[in-house]
Amino acid sequence: MTVTTAPTARYRKDYKAPSFSIDTVDLHFYLDDTCTRVVNTMQVQKRDDEPDLVLDGEQLQLVQVTLDDRLLVAEQDYKVGRKSLTIYNVPAQFSLTIENTINPSANTALEGLYKSAGVFCSQCEAEGFRRITYFLDRPDVLSVYTTTLYVANKEEYPHLLSNGNKVDTGTTAEGLSWVRWHDPYPKPSYLFAVVAGDFDLLEDTYTTAEGRQVLLQFFVDKGNLNKAYFAMEALKNSMRWDEQRFGLSYDLDIYMVVAVDFFNMGAMENKGLNVFNSKFVLADEASATDQDFINVEAVIGHEYFHNWTGNRITCRDWFQLSLKEGLTVFREQEFSADQGMRAVNRIQDVRIMRTHQFEEDAGPMAHAIRPDIVVEMNNFYTVTIYNKGAEVVRMLHTLLGEQTFQAGMRRYIADNDGKAATCNDFLQAMEQASGRNLNQFKRWYSQAGTPEISVQTDYSRRQRKLTVTISQASDKPANAPFHIPIQVELLSQQGEPLHPPELPVNSVLELTEPEQTFTFTGLKEAPVFAPLANFSAPVKCNDTRSLDELITITRFAQDAFLRWDAVQQLYSQAVHEAIAQGGALTLPNALIDGLKASLTDGNSDPALVALLLQIPSEEGVAAEFKYVPVSAIHRAITELHEALARGLYTELLQAWDMHWPQATDKQAAFSKEAIAARMLCNTCLGYLAAMTDSEAVHERLQRQFAAEQSMTLVFGALQAAVHNQHRLAEVQLAQFANRWQHDPLVMDKWLAVQATVRHASSIAKVHELTEHSAFDWSNPNRVYALLASFSHNFAQLHQADGAGYALLVSAIKRLNTANPQVASRLLSPLLNWRRFNDARQGLLQQVLSDLRNMPDLAPDLFEKIEQSLR
Ligand code: 0A1
Ligand code: ZN
């Protein structure tokens, strides 16, 4: 966990196949809070002429080692290092038994086996198994596991779980109860899991297309059963969807999901035994928002889809992480989209890319989706590996089309099932299925950075011809040109879609050169050219389109993303002008009129209208600047919010009133229509609450806050009041806390909403809330809700006096040894100091060097700070 010497980097190019295979693993866990005994028997085979077997192990107390029934002697037969166990001169084939102990209660890093909130739970990805026993803890060593769990007190731990099928139970002569599990599928150690605890259990079954009856089990904290039904439905939907769209069925007779309160990440796809952060399982209407429900469905799907893309076909080494994560995020996104809100989902995914991934790609931790160098693997569970990885898979899908892409998937699975594969194996399958050469496309895997495309159009009325010149440039000078699919729309001035003969049927232009020209003929007037429909590539677009063109696109483009994006361009132009001129922000009348029309016409999808009204975040605008003018951005965004609130006041009220009945319709509670109505009501109220003197607003804020049956509406009202510092804020905050103090997941919302107030008072508030009983330093969800939320409150984090930095840094210091993964997540927003003015640069460099000098600096933090300061 901590370092005294600088941790060393590992390089992708140094990959070497393992010298040994471990065919079977027989594990026995004698569970105990502070001294759990692990007995691990492995059947090992030599693969080359390496004399010694070197196993990974960290923070283990070794008891004894036996090789083929011979008790080994320390120093003579083996050596224990700080992070390894070396067995000298082993035979070609042997059985090795290692006995060691671990302390689950002291494990606050939540990696390996830990005990929290009365539950024993493991987390092995990426390199946590080595904190359980000595092993070849790398994803290309696949073994068949048998696991036996022993407990002294069966009443305290009625559920003893591990991967695969339960094969036997019993009681030892000493009175220990035990349960044995066997997983027939060879797997890497990172997919191993054990859980022991007392839970409520929700059961159901699913029959696969192949006729297999699968028992589905959800284990949740006592009293929470009624909050697990939605997740169960989501699981069954995922299983069905994967059969229908990808032709993939589940392969065991049991699928278990355990919801735990202490977890660093979202969830984990352990074979047959998923472990979930409880916030991605538990949901009911009174305590969870629509977005929470949508997230539950997405994460349940994600972990389920890993069974094929991750578990059956795993990664050869951790540099290939995006092989499973990018592909599985793509599958998860398609699953969510197929549930019915495709356009809304796509726009939300693009927002994540633009605000967070572009930022990461422009900072010191920028890495390709298949990185070349890693110090701490836990630092690479990033928006780049996950979300950009999914965008790269999506580009392949765009280039090949659904049918050919699915043929490529079938090929990939046929060739790699049961193996540890590489990103190149995936690309090779796609090449073979499509007959296309993907050599240039492969650069998306090896080159970091965000390409920027520029578009120039030239129309000749005489020739009735449009000439479009598209060029690409990279923010990383060494990059070679990318293969960029650019889906386009051509519109007449009146907004009709145009299909000149040169436009491919799928409307996708392929940019492969630094600059390329495309011509379109038979056009009797200058058309509007709209590139990057559906955000067909993760690139920036240097936009020089006129106001009129943008307005045409907002009104007539077929693609919802293009319409949304054109409005975003208009917001962005207004913000940039206000910043450049230092003056008041103005919005084009045509934009205001268009928004008024969308708010009041009954035909537009209210969810899309809500998204049109969503202005860029301070962070999003900052990402567009090489040098970030913090206070000017803050001022411009505040003005934009107020200008819309004032300019649209009447229509916002009207829209709220129009959608309120649908938003509160009990019959249609979770229909697409009701969700969309609530989205728009919340968005309207988010603006209206800025009109602090309006009685009409006051009344609606109260009415919506009182809509007890729907957390979406209650929290929407609370957020509107708090973020606008409305006079109702304090009383609503108090009432909300009073109503929900028993439910930590709901109190996380209460913490987060206060940490994201765009006002200088938020720093003192966050500080004060760290002392509140709803907060707990040892629980990652609480830390993320309060401190990670604050770390994205851009202008407050970057307060000129350094108070925001001080707040975050003290939290990072506190978590450095207790939970380095969580500490490392909080650090990211501080790394890009080069993009701020001199005073902030100085402050940031100071806090980073301060952290750098901490005794016992965790490798997770070390890697990021070194990258940032070099
Ligand atoms: N594979 C999981 C994510 C995950 C990664 C690491 C973890 O602990 C360090 C936990 C979960 C997923 O993609 O869902
Ligand atoms: Zn995943």
TrEMBL record:
GO molecular function, one term: metallopeptidase activity
SUPFAM superfamilies reported for this sequence: Leukotriene A4 hydrolase N-terminal domain (SSF63737), Metalloproteases ('zincins'), catalytic domain (SSF55486)
Domain Peptidase M1 alanyl aminopeptidase C-terminal: 548-869
Keyword Ubl conjugation tagged: no
Top-rank taxon: Bacteria
Residue ranges of every copy of the Peptidase M1 membrane alanine aminopeptidase domain listed in the record: 230-444
Cofactor(s) listed: Zn(2+)
Domain Aminopeptidase N-like N-terminal, chain residue ranges per copy: 27-191
Uppermost EC category: hydrolase
Function noted in UniProt: Aminopeptidase N is involved in the degradation of intracellular peptides generated by protein breakdown during normal growth as well as in response to nutrient starvation.
NCBIfam families membership: pepN_proteo
Name of protein: Aminopeptidase N
Organism: Aliidiomarina taiwanensis
